[in-house]
Records
---
Amino acid sequence: MNETEKIAALIPRLRRYARALLGDAVAADDLVQDTLERAWRKAALWRPGSDLRAWLFAIMHNLFVNQVRSRRPDKEASLDEGALERPAAADASAGVQLLDLASALARLPPEQREVLLLVGLEELTYREAAQVLGVPVGTVMSRLARGRERLRQLMNGEGGAPSLRVVK
């Protein structure tokens, strides 16, 4: 399988991550397209034998961060109905829980949401997620722990601001 075929095989994973990250199918597709365009232009920078998936996710992460930085502070990303692909559910409560999860994910800080999605959804290792995000493995672990705890609070209806602890 050549590099073009390998990249094409990764497009569904890129789309899934982008949709979960942005919550908007159109914006997610634009992010995937921008990622693929940048990868094509920078193909000479990819080291054959290295993890192509991690390289593409790193490009997507950098593009996402640039978009967040350039976005006006009053604009919030909202989740559309197709943000997360929903499996067929036998009962309505599963669909409601999935919508609650999507809403809770959207309320997380971007750095926690990114780590949760990379590790939980895309099944990257901590090391791979650290490589994608350009941070140490310990930072991935702490963001993941904080993100999971905040997500748990939001899913349990504890939507208030997280309490701060005084550390001496």
---
Amino acid sequence: MSGLTQLKAALLGNFDKEVEAGRERVEGALQASLFDYASDLQAKWRQDIAQSGLANAARLTKTIRVRNYRNRGMNPASQVFSNFPIIQRAFEQATTVRSKNGNWLLIPNPDVWPGGRVARPSRNGAQRTNTLALAEQRFGKLRFVYRPAKTSLLVAEVRSSASQPGRFKMASATAMRTGVGLTTIVVFFLVKEARLPRMLRGSVIRERAARNAGAEVDRRFIRYFEQAGTTPLLKGPTDD
């Protein structure tokens, strides 16, 4: 092989190697910039839920997930989504909730039910029990109080706990017969419909993220591309 041929082969070999390295550098920077932007969107969405004041906000933040797809070539993708979109939309849009069968909606009295929700049995294999049945198991027979032009009520005749002020327990048969020591409590408020407060801004956060995606990914791409010239890019998990 002549010297000119050897030189040509060496140049071609180095050129191919540099092209491949450059392609990998571009792909890595593009993936890193897109995945980084998706992670930021997830963090902002979770922060909005955490600061919302919802009773189960800490648990609800974990339902905001991100899934990254490296794919092949320069077409990576990211998806930021909620595992419970119905709840998200309800508190983003101030949805009006109505009973499916046109009956009353039961709103637990927070003075009676800690946290304003009816606790359900957590034992394995426990039978599913409806809300009214759970309330009667705890307080006894409920009584309907209709109030025209006002919120109607479901009340119970109970005894106050001597050891735990503000707590109530089911009255004995004797107490129910004599009326001694009984007190009436509101167990549920009854309404035909309820409008949820607008407590989440997820739709605003997502729309803003979509609007700024192009410029933000470009900005991050430059940073990651420059870093890739000296150190390998760290690729995060594909699902979180």
---
Amino acid sequence: MTNRTKPIDHRTLVAAERREKTRAKLLRGAIHVFAQHGAEASVIELVIKQAGVSRGTFYNYFRTNEELFLEVAREVSNEIITIVDPIVQRQRDPAASLACGLVSVVRLAVNNPVLAQFVCKGGPGALSAGNLTTTVVPREIKNGMAAGLFTVPDEQLAFDLIFGPVIMAFNAVINGRASEEYARNLAQAVLQSLGVEVSRARCYARLDFDDVSIPADSLFHC
């Protein structure tokens, strides 16, 4: 019996591509609006204007301000992973991986101020919806603790010791204080807070990490 492949419906493909482009346009507009007005502001009309779509089109994708913010936060978190994690994965030592991630995230924010503004306006919720906080950072914490490099009592405390400084680093970006030296010192301080000895933490934080490369279609671009 011959298996027959179902023919591709090109109209369905075109419609799906159009829908994805519209969704991306809404998300890109929303991150800029939230970056200016914050998560608590009523931004739907502003996003509609920013994205250049009709009100009906908007409501085909999102129903509420809160739903929109949650989806933008999820996309921001996951896009940070897409950009930064390939660089992090080149490091074999868990402490070097974490240092690389911290330095790279600061570099990313410096090159994309809208990201820093979105996080500062949105607070912890601006980063907590996607895989960055649920998968990637916990992975690095587990690896560091398993290797005996991180000696904090539990993983949740380690998580807090990482994300508190990261959120403040976004504020430093907005205020023009986030130099390369700042990013390196941040990485060193976080590693020390996790239990890494001072001289080793300094060495990890000053490794030669690859530069951050931003895709042309990044959510963070205008």
---
Amino acid sequence: MSQSFNYTNRALISPKDAVIRVMIPAPSKGGEPRSIQFTADTQLKEDYDFPNDAPLVIEAYSYLYYKRFEFGTVGKPGPVPGAEPHLEADGWEGLRFRLKVIDPHHSGRILGEADRLRPVLLRPGLGEEGGAKRPLLSVTSRDIGQRVWMLEFELAGPTVVINKGNPELRQRMEAQLYRWLVFPEVMQRVLERILCVEGIEFDGAQPSAEGWRGDWLNFATGLFEPPPAPSEEPKEDRRKWAEWTDQVVRRLCERHNAWDVFSKAFAEESGP
């Protein structure tokens, strides 16, 4: 039987038995759709000893967001007809999901759980995008006063927050014209945060970071080379890492011909 237990006797459900699919409709002409629907494909009958009438709960969450959905039972999973689960359009990219199996005879007791589930994305005309691939950067929008955009660091990684005062701004910020105005600066700030602020450990000459920090360092190393190993001079290390970050951003822009792409997009938007 392919199940395991933690110290609470709660069955640990394999991610392959709890697949979340987020359906992302095409943006409307005036901006993003108001909500985004998701489904869950659960396979809990054969490899687990859960009662068929055990209720299922799905929780969508991030550092600043939480929403709970009832999702039928083990024997008959699914949303209540006419009440399909929806997510707010703003902020869905950084979400993770948690599936819980509740004891039908003891209110509040959790029989099994799958946590930190990354959704499979379904985009119109593109099919599925694997949920196992972790994005380097999340983008969301909300009211941030007079700021146009800002960079936040959450548990799941860095997020670009775009002012939601104009519903079309988010789409424009993700287009070629604005992407190259924003992303190089974001990359520089993220790498400096990892190396100069958080103090990543090194294993020999290689930084030993996991999670989103490791993803960013691996991406940067693929563009240039590993960052200089630390010495006994913290001030000198910060200088070397800042110079290394400058080189990484330079290589990124050169590889993607950032100025040429931006200039072309700017000319097309400006018109004759």
